[in-house]
Amino acid sequence: MTSQPAVTDGNVTRAFEMRFTSTPRGARLARRLGAHRLDAWGIPYGTRPHEEIVLVLGELTANAVRHGHVPGRDFHLLLRVLAPSGRVRIEVTDSRGERLPPSPEELPAPSDGDTGGRGLLLVAALAERWGRHPRSGGPGKTVWAECAPG
Cα separation of 83 and 63, whole Å? Predict the structure, then answer.
């Protein structure tokens, strides 16, 4: 697992967090609420930064449902704006620690015949950096990404 230093509250200007059911509906709701929150924070709908951040958020929440689902367990979304850079940090935590995504350094390119496996390539292309680390305080993992606001 790649480690990521904790972000102290002094470096966060805005934050939103919520638990969602580990279902496709929960992932869609997380994406919609995240998009709304970004707009309220001054990263407006229809702009390139907004669309890119929402794509990354959507991919991470969809992966939490697809690869991190544990019956009866939710996934957790934490969305923050980091000061002074204004970068947006997305953290999605699920309860499935044994199903790890590849690290950024090990991300394989899918073959032409693959019908999946392109989501993390999208995250890697749109995020300034991303990674994964063990879930603090319980089983599972957190996959995170940081995106530039513009």
Answer: 28
